[in-house]
Amino acid sequence: MDDRHLVLPPEAVDVAIQTVRELLGESGASIILQRANMLDYLKDGRLAPGKRPTFGDVGRVTQAMIDVYGPKSASATLKRAGRVQFTKWRENYPLAIGLASTALKSLPADLRLKTLLKAVTMAAKQIAQVDTEFIEKPDGTLLFKTYQCPYCSGVHTSSAFCHTAIGALDELAFWVTNQAWQTEEIECRAQGAETCTFLMKMS
Ligand SMILES: [Zn+2]
């Protein structure tokens, strides 16, 4: 299914804008937005009033990062952006993520992560109308699948493209378990797969 037309909640877009400004600075953020043909989305460092960015817009920003910085450097920056974004989501969506974490404290680490990922699937649907699925594999690794994905929306690549989501999942797992986890995108909608599928294992 083409997900380019799906609209993101303005608060989520504002979090993304603040993240990009922090990582790339004002001029870097402007260069990327100009390349994506979206300079008018920004006003005084925030999302311009009346703009409703779509998943396709986010995909264009990701593509612009790769065009400007090259795939290697862009993937590192996007992963960092994902980590920062998760931290900001916790602050901006305390009901979906933050409060759940208080209830999680008494659980063992692996159960905390699974419980949080289940909360994320519900929050994704509620906040962004995104269908996700979380699967525990018998070997202890975890699969997180998303049926719509802003990060690679409208993009066609030969390799997996959703470094921002990888960074966010790595940070989420580290934050809730206090242990380093490694996330790998094993299938990507940008490659023509039905879902972006992330494999998470403790590193
Ligand atoms: Zn993907």
Description:
This protein has 203 residues and is of the alpha+beta class. The protein has a single domain (10-202), classed as H-NOX domain, CATH 3.90.1520.10. The protein contains 6 helices and 6 strands; from the N terminus they run αββααααββαββ. The strands form 2 sheets. Strands 3-4-6-5 form a 4-stranded antiparallel sheet, with helices on one face. Strands 1-2 form a two-stranded antiparallel ribbon. Strand 3 and strand 4 form a beta hairpin. Helix 1 (10-35) packs parallel to helix 2 (55-69), helix 2 packs across helix 3 and helix 4 runs antiparallel to helix 5 (109-128). It starts with 9 loop residues before the first helix and ends with a strand. The mean pLDDT is 89. Zinc ion binds at residues 149, 152, 160-162, 185, 188-190, 196.
Helix/strand order, N-terminal first: HEEHHHHEEHEE
Indicate the proportion of strand residues: 5-15%
- The whole-number mean of residue pLDDT values reads 89
Largest sheet: 4 strands, antiparallel
The CATH class assignment is: Alpha Beta
SSE layout:
Elements: H1 10-35, E1 42-43, E2 46-47, H2 55-69, H3 71-92, H4 94-104, H5 109-128, E3 132-136, E4 142-146, H6 163-177, E5 181-187, E6 196-202
Antiparallel strand pairs: 1-2, 3-4, 4-6, 5-6
Helix pairs in contact: 1-2, 1-3, 2-3, 3-4, 3-6, 4-5, 5-6
The structure holds zinc ion.
Zinc ion binds at residues 149, 152, 160-162, 185, 188-190, 196.
Question: What attributes does this structure have?
Answer:
203 residues, alpha+beta, H-NOX domain, 4-stranded antiparallel sheet, two-stranded antiparallel sheet, 6 helices, 6 strands, globular, binds zinc ion
